[in-house]
Write a structure and sequence with these properties.
About 0% of the residues lie in helices and about 35% in strands. It is mostly beta strands. It has a single domain, classed as SH3 type barrels (Roll). A hairpin with a 5-residue loop joins strand 2 and strand 3. The termini are far apart. The mean pLDDT is about 90.
Length: about 80
């Protein structure tokens, strides 16, 4: 799936560590906005298990990829977990 196929509400996986935001490669998010100007970008929301927003980031297509059917979902504790 290329960047033209990424759409609103798609589930995506981060492909790079964004440690300042406590988002790491492999974390799962949802596209909540799609931008085309000045370049393609995606607002991606990452949530905690209770549904609260953990991070809301604007990412490029090089930083995310679609969730695939052969992906394995896993969990890890966040430094912000209480």
């Amino acid at each position: 799936m290329n960047s033209e196929q990424l759409q609103l509400l798609n589930t995506v996986i981060v492909t790079v560590d964004l440690s300042d935001e406590e988002v790491l490669a492999g974390d799962i998010g949802t596209i909540v906005e799609v931008y085309s100007i000045p370049y393609p970008a995606y607002e991606v929301e990452f949530v905690n298990p209770n549904g609260t927003t953990r991070a809301l980031l604007t990412l490029s297509s090089a930083q995310i990829r679609p969730l695939l059917e052969n992906d394995v979902l896993t969990t890890r504790q966040s430094a912000l977990a209480v």
